[in-house]
Amino acid sequence: MPVNISSQQLRQMIQQSAKHMQTQVSLKQMVEFGRTPSQATLLRAAQFIHHELPIRLARRVVELENLPYNLSNMSSVKKVAEWYQQSYLDLVTFPPPEDVGLPKTILRDISLTEEDGVSKTITEGKPKAILDAGLLKQVAAYNARFVDCIENIKTRHDPVAINMAQGIQELKAHWKETKSTPVLESASSGPSAGIDAGAGGGVDGGDLLGNSTFRVTRPETNSDHGGAGAGGGGGGGGASAGAVGTHEQMQMLKNQEAVENLLPTDLQSFLDRFYMSRIGIRMLIGQHVALAKASSAGSKSSPDYVGIICTKTSIRDIVTQAAEHAQGILQDTMGVFSPPEIKLFISHSGVLGAKVDHAVDDVHFMYVPSHLHHCLFELFKNSLRAVVETHGLDMDGEYPPIKVIVAEGNEDITIKISDEGGGIPRSGMPLIWTYLYTTAQRQDLEDAMSSEYRAPMAGFGYGLPLSRLYLQFFGGDLKVISMEGFGTDAYLHLNRLSDSTEPLPS
Ligand SMILES: Nc1ncnc2c1ncn2[C@@H]1O[C@H](COP(=O)(O)OP(=O)(O)O)[C@@H](O)[C@H]1O
Ligand SMILES: [Mg+2]
């Protein structure tokens, strides 16, 4: 592969790669690699990723360059597209193993085993070829180089979500300036082109497009509002309900500030696809890097981990850590010294608090702890904020606790998070799944891009939609049900990961 590639050539290569099929990977496959894979196994995994990642990246480049509403031209989105392009280039210019002197025979249709530090290649029906120590060293060096390459890509893409959020805000500012609101323009062309404020687009279908009932509330722009403020923007404020599409309704919508909080259906579903793809890419890289590091000499990995997958993820541990993390952020950002308690209840054989034999009352299952942490952390922040805003910062006595109830089924493990934070008005429910919808004071994205960035309490509007994608990635789901005037229940359904295969957005 020539390293000097003109931008024209690169463009053509990307177009070509984007036409290739992506390959789904199941969690089971990732776990079957084993805890400490051999250098030979790692080499085969590297070859798979070397083939697969450019396809996935190329598809995103093509999509990022062809977004509706001029979004592709927003500088932050251009930046993201450049990163995807650069990472694509890094991979396609990374030498295949045969170019660094590894014999082709060890790379094709072979299963490899290592014994006593010496690798053997066993080709079907052909005599065994021995990987001598020298060759093994060469394979290990190649693997290490590949790990550096993809780790570098992962780091490059760390700020992608923030940049995309910035890009959407640039677009919204542009709409405001030019007084054009494509949400309404696309909606007024008929119900089928209408707004989907509904199921959050794309991923789980649901009542998309024409079926969705669209309601709007006036958003809280003033975050100082106490009361039911956290609940999706003052239920009292001029709610209008009805199916999308009639001229009158569109006129009514035009008068609603809430329109600013909406994204057209196609952008919403683009973001769902884009982030789902990103989760898959980061999972592939994260898993490979973790496996490679675990099998490198001298490292001691926990026996419960296979890469970043923990075969005995402890719900109690993750709930506790995420709760402390969220409470800490609440203390720092809202100055609450005794935050609402987060109480965990685990059901065994259908009975809450049933006596259990194990020393610690817990549920263990196979999952990626960092994903679960992410979702619980986001949900706890939402509940904490709602409880504190509903009951006031100067509340006498203790805040009502947030209850976490865990139920273990055959298919799913379900975690319910119940708060008494005033709930969300029904008209605000569809909006909570849209990116950028927030009733908190909007976070300054410039700050978020700075190096001293800490996770914010709220204010990006990404917490719920992204958490749902993380859960759906492994075959689970997230549902939110509210009792306006009282509180909110969030249900995290975690699939036990038997055979769930990766959802691959086109
Ligand atoms: N437990 C809850 N109680 C009341 N309102 C909630 C709750 N969870 C979410 N919301 C509403 O949904 C909105 C979107 O939540 P989220 O996606 O996490 O974004 P953010 O927290 O950045 O606003 C919040 O701004 C809030 O209005
Ligand atoms: Mg949030």
UniProtKB/TrEMBL annotation:
Record-linked Pfam families: BCDHK_Adom3, HATPase_c
Taxonomy, superkingdom: Eukaryota
Catalytic reactions of this protein: L-seryl-[pyruvate dehydrogenase E1 alpha subunit] + ATP = O-phospho-L-seryl-[pyruvate dehydrogenase E1 alpha subunit] + ADP + H(+)
Main localisation: mitochondrion
EC number: 2.7.11.-
One cellular-component annotation, GO: mitochondrial matrix
Gene3D superfamilies assigned: Alpha-ketoacid/pyruvate dehydrogenase kinase, N-terminal domain (1.20.140.20), Histidine kinase-like ATPase, C-terminal domain (3.30.565.10)
InterPro entries in UniProt: AK/P_DHK_N_sf (IPR036784), BCDHK/PDK_N (IPR018955), BCKD/PDK (IPR039028), HATPase_C_sf (IPR036890), HATPase_dom (IPR003594), His_kinase_dom (IPR005467)
Gly residues: compositionally biased ranges: 226-240
UniProt GO BP: regulation of glucose metabolic process
Annotated region (Disordered), positions in chain: 216-243
PROSITE patterns in alphabetical order: HIS_KIN
Domain Histidine kinase, residue spans: 369-498
Keyword list, A-Z: ATP-binding, Kinase, Mitochondrion, Nucleotide-binding, Transferase
SUPFAM superfamilies cross-referenced by the UniProt entry: alpha-ketoacid dehydrogenase kinase, N-terminal domain, ATPase domain of HSP90 chaperone/DNA topoisomerase II/histidine kinase
A GO MF term: pyruvate dehydrogenase (acetyl-transferring) kinase activity
CDD domains: HATPase_PDK-like
Cell location: Mitochondrion matrix
Similarity remark: Belongs to the PDK/BCKDK protein kinase family.
Name of the protein: Protein-serine/threonine kinase
Organism: Chytriomyces confervae
